[in-house]
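Now for a typical sample entry:
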Amino acid sequence: MNRIVRVLLFAGLALWSLTAQAQSTRLRAANKQFDNLSYVTAVRMYEEFLRTDKKKDPVETREALTKLGYSYRKLQDTRNAERVYGELVKNYNDLDSEMYLFYAQALAANGKYRESQKMYSRYGEQQSEDLRGRKFTVSYMDVNRFYRDSSSYRVHNIPINSRQADFSPMFYKGGLVFVSSRDESGVIRRVFSWNQTPFLDLYFHPDTNQLKVPNIERRPSMAMLGGGNTEAKPIEAMEETTSAEEQQPLTKAQKFSRTLNTKYHEGPVTFTKDQSFIVFTRNNGAKGKAGKSQEGVRKLKLYSAVNKNGKWTDVQDLPFNSAEYSVGHPAFTPDNTRMYFVSDMPGGYGGTDVYVVEFNNGQWGTPVNMGREINTEGNEMFPYVDETGNLYFASDGHEGLGGLDIFYAELKDGVAYKGVENVGAPINSEKDDFGLITDASRTTGFFSSNRKKGITDDDIYSFKRTCKQLNILVYDAKTNMPLENADVRILRNGSSQDLRLTNVEGRAELCVESNAEYEFKAVKEGFAMNSVRFSTLTQSSKPVMNVSIYLERSENTIMKGVVKTEVNQKPASGVKVTLRNEKDKSEQTVVTGPDGGYEFAMKPNAPYTLTAQKDQYAVKKAKYGKQPKKATNKVVTDSVGIYGVGDVFQLKNIYYDLNKFFIRPDAARELDRLVGLLKEYPEMKVEIRSHTDARASDGYNIRLSENRARAALDYIVSRGITPSRLVARGYGESEIVNGCVDGVNCSENEHQQNRRTEFKILAVQ
């Protein structure tokens, strides 16, 4: 009997050993796929391992669950990620803190904000230095703030989307360049092992007008209502929805460029303003060891190309690329002087950060991290700069609805001085939303999202903001009659915007923005100025709203004016204009908006001083005498000109006889005007710039122009201006203004236009 027992026991141990060996072999095979970043295959093998592992070795089970959850996370399968991380949190008490973070993110991506809030709280308890725990815990107490402007937007899935991923649109020649992994034709089908989808290429659709939001009825969408989550019901979130029968047919898109698309990934792009220069994202294409990092991964790089005769040529990789980290997602500023991009290079704040680099005459500077205002411990991606120079980007580190949300930052001197703003639903959802491009006022545009099904179904959406109308009604306070032709100055969040004029009904209309504080100042001759405040920080269900301003009759004088830059006589924004009553020392101050305008009330029998000042501009002062109490003209209209550093002015009528450099009488009169300007602004320093025509040699013309500039400087000094405030420089024939270069026949009058003198402001204080 004992022998039989020993034999059976030995047989059982052998069977257990074989089973355990098979289980370990299966786990090792899954781990190999995981290490190779083949997440689709890894998911299948981990699920099979967990399903067949009946005896469940706790160490191996925990390892499999941890890597399975991470694989689902990488595949953007948030529902399965939630399931796996939920099991880990339920069964293990000593998890790494990031497990709570990943679980919180998966819950939020599935619209379960209250459960997510609890997991963010647990994560914050363990990782107090990571601000995401605290920020999201507070943020998910009330998600309605992300839906304040939702009723003003319409969102539409555009007909260029395929069954594969389509994302990251960019404007190009009236159409869109975008990224797609749509199926390719041909015998060989290339797939990316990460998620078994085709590699990414660049595609082009030639006409954005075919892709805009159609004029069809809107219906509430559960995707926009928090994914069916009953915990938080946002207000009036709307999305364009169409039935299967109403779906527009797929609009044909073509491959963007045969020279730019390769066998690897090509990703987001940006163009210079003239669209002749492109920077685009691509996998490191170098062969052998140079093509992969030390971890064996092909990182993303940025490449540039030039359009010559309709073809993209001269592909160059940018100097700050590396095989050890990724750089991608480029975005030029409107003036092409800087480019934003994303990188996980060492020294950042989180996964990927937004960087900026200077671009000058084809030369790249050194990348600079955008700092804590923009970047977080999470991932910041897909930057875009609108036509006013302000920044949009996607992030999962700033408070949002889940996954990647799109954020906006108003920049001043490259700094997000007001922080960042979540653009809200319905542009943002609980899934990944990214790659937004739009106009200056975010009225229309396009963005990418995987809100439809999640996982790898990125689609491109168009959006349009409808008007949330506010009527500003101006009345006579005594008669309650509407006042026609009253000026209404609009201020938003303390900044001057534009000036509206009331109609015969005393009404001026405005489309208001969400999350903003407004002030409206009404001005009319014969009445005292008055103002009213209005806030959209709280949402109103009314499609049209009204505010009223009542004006009292007054003997005061109204001052109205515009600040302009002297160099081009265009309105100057951001100028601080102060009107000081020299009798009672009271002051009124405004900061000009895009129209450069200002309005003040002036009391009678008091002198006033008007001051206009802005950084890098000379301070302008103007004095006004006492206004009589019974003046017939109750409105003082004036324009103020300001001089800025770097402005270049041509001194009219300062021409020189051929091969001469002495000051002619007509030139002396013009130089006297410059002398007067320098005496008005005693801190101003200028450069005297002299030019010649193209006749004679370059060397001769340089010497001649230097003599001419010196002659002008000597004349100005003779009129009492300190020499240290002046610089004389000759430019010869290097800056011809009318095409009369060597070899071109021109009249004597045309040549004389090039024999000119200018002055450039070097400093104003």
